[in-house]
Amino acid sequence: MFLVVYHVLILSLYLYALWFDSNFVEIPYPSKEFENIPFRARASFLTFWTMMVQILYFIVACLNDAIGTNTVTKKPPLIRKIKDHLFSLAFTTAVYVPITFWTLYKIDKTYIYPNEEAERQIPNWLNHLMHTSILPIILVELFISNKNYPKRKTGLKILLCSAAAYSAYIHYLYFKYGIWPYNFLHLLSWTNKIVMTLFSGVLGVLYYLIGEKLDSLISKNRREHKHANGIKSH
């Protein structure tokens, strides 16, 4: 029951944040070209893509609660398979965004905010929900829900295809409108952009493997705990 309540609560929180951002947060972008980007230019930011992944995951998790199964099983229904595959992407992005965002923020916050006014327009609770809380939220999900992680080859394909899609999108915006979503991209040469992209990909793979390993350890502990309890009951 706790798992179901948790899924509904987090999904409601994320949907409220998305609604609030769409209706009450006005970011003063540095150029009018941002007006051409969907979702009030939010679609240019990795944070927005990550939030969409989290929302999609918790929608599927709620559906799985209703018509699938949360038990340990070698042959899960389709909705559970989709949920487990999505989790591998949701976990990786929920680790990547907070670490990257706050690292760049500490170095120079102008790297990620178009201007100081933009930062002031975003409430602290919304900022931390998008860039901080998503990490502990997905860690809680990791510990309280049973999962069948996808095969590594499949999971990494999902991750790298998603990363390639975002990279292709922001390059499309640059070549069409001459803008980058983050200020630091204006400062990098094309060689450094390529290096940064490859390094980001390596970090993404590393975070994926961490999630896979943690899930394996947690699943093993669950099995050992159940086995021990079963022996004691005889």
Automatic annotation (TrEMBL):
GO cellular component terms, A-Z: endomembrane system; membrane
Main location: membrane
Superkingdom of origin: Eukaryota
Transmembrane portions of the chain: 41-64, 85-105, 125-144, 156-174, 194-210
Reaction equations catalysed: 12-(9Z-hexadecenoyloxy)-octadecanoate + H2O = 12-hydroxyoctadecanoate + (9Z)-hexadecenoate + H(+); 13-(9Z-hexadecenoyloxy)-octadecanoate + H2O = 13-hydroxy-octadecanoate + (9Z)-hexadecenoate + H(+); 9-octadecanoyloxy-octadecanoate + H2O = 9-hydroxy-octadecanoate + octadecanoate + H(+); 9-(9Z-hexadecenoyloxy)-octadecanoate + H2O = (9Z)-hexadecenoate + 9-hydroxy-octadecanoate + H(+)
InterPro entries in UniProt: ADTRP_AIG1
This protein's UniProt keywords: Membrane, Transmembrane, Transmembrane helix
Record's keyword annotation contains Zinc: no
Localization per record: Endomembrane system
Membrane topology: Multi-pass membrane protein
Coiled-coil region(s): none
Family statement: Belongs to the AIG1 family.
Protein name: Androgen-dependent TFPI-regulating protein-like
Source organism of this protein record: Trichoplusia ni (Cabbage looper)
Gene: LOC113506911
